[in-house]
Give the backbone structure.
Amino acid sequence: MTLISMFEDAVQHYGNKSALAHKPKGGTYEDISYTEFGTSVDAFSQGLNGLGVFKGDRVAILSENRPEWAISDFGILKVGAISVPMFSTLTAAQVGYILKDSGAKIICVSTEKQLEKISTIRGEVPTLEQIIIFDTIEDEIPEGAIQFQAVCELAGEEIERAASEDDLATIIYTSGTTGNPKGVMLTHANFISNVQACKSLIDVSETDVLLSFLPLSHVFERLGGHYVPLFSGAKIAYAESTFTVAQNMKEVAPTVMLSVPRLYETMHERILRAVQEGSPLKQKIFHWGVSVGSAVSSAIQQGKKPPAVLQLQQNIADKLVFAKLKEATGGRLRFFVSGGAALPQFIAEFFHAAGILILEGYGLTETSPVISMNHPEKWKFGTVGTAVPGVEVQIAEDGEILTRGPHVMKGYFNNAAATAEVIDADGWFYTGDIGIIDADGFIKITDRKKNIIVLSNGKNVAPQPIESALVQSPFISQIMVIGSERKNLAALIVPNFDALKAWASDSDTGGDIDTSDLSAMLQTREVQQHIQSEIRNQLTDFADFEQVRRFTLLEKEFSQEDDEMTPTLKLKRNVIIEKYGDVIEGMYPEDA
């Protein structure tokens, strides 16, 4: 069994049902059936073969999510080649490194902008023979480049399934925060074991619709938002961009959706902001609705049926408070899935109070990716669920999470030494995450092992729980806790600017502080004291050495564009520490 055989079975079984949907610029969503999808894959695979692509060759993909990405993926697999997906946000230099390291023979690019990146580094990649362009280019096409449609029209022989389950399907380069990325080698068998494990726990069927906006180049979306739904007969609609997700949700009305925590945090922030701007009566109704929803959620989590009176109150709260939230998701959502980073527990609890379940899972690129997950029949907030079928998990003496099974990668491409560092002789993969397994088998992640802060007094501090607690403040949007080899903790804080401005201009709270100059406002004694109070209130349950004693308010959000976040929106801590080095030193004058 291979990914391409599973795909061909799906095409045969689901035929004229919609497989993909995309929205051309200025248009409306258009569907592509499973049959049409399969025909395009056949044509593209024959075209690749005509270009000289054979089993074992590497073919890179540098593109945003779109039908051509999916067609290319299966077309590459069908000829027995190996895909090398890349984030569309990578720089030309980063793309060049991956092309050289992987020895890619061909690269598929989405737009003229991506084509320009390749043009600048092409001379540095001796293995690169051809560029395939998804968009139609009106100007003259560069030498050694060809349009996607022209590839599909190349005369070629019918391709037989060239790969076996133990063959490589892809090499995914990790978006590491330090050093050069490593190429993770995943086989057909790696993915199939994960697909089967996930499908056994979550019922995805031909009645489901998914909105895909996380990069397909990331293994989380590749598995959960690409292979699982397609092998289940579901329909995948591609968001126009990360900036249009809210609008596309209303248009597509997804039943299932995958995201990283930042989307849920942003939705939560917007809801609270709208409440703050409402009348006292609306605020009172909102908080009543949340309290009712929380009581219902609590009963469900304890395996109890909510009392009849509470259910009646829930129906009222649903109409008065939560109807608009559900409408904003399209009105058909069965559940969200969260991965890629830690989901703050209070976010999951808030959405469940509103009647929307967020199922958090856990995994890494090296594990295809799913190690554990919560699912509709068995979940616990604040955890990443239980190990999926076929996967072993244990905790090492130092607290590191280890896993073993058919999901573990074949190794790092061209890097046997790095492979030996993370996979031991017994097949256990060392995840680099610290965690625990509770009495019910649920896994709780404490932090990344490399993120643990060691204070000058020898105390070990995991920053993630502290950061998760602090972002519960409506006035804190992003935060990074620091303090390695220092006496105490400090933090770089990005405030929720709208909430803070509203507080500052209210005579009953901030005292009519001038909000026209953001920099000046953040430095006022009142704002500084208010944030300090928020920090103190959110950390009441933490030990003395886990308290954040100093902080700096930043005027700009951490972003992927500024290289401060990975494509899955995790903080690049080393990059941020280097960038704000002077600011950090200023918070520790005694060390100067």
About this structure: The chain has a mean pLDDT of 94.
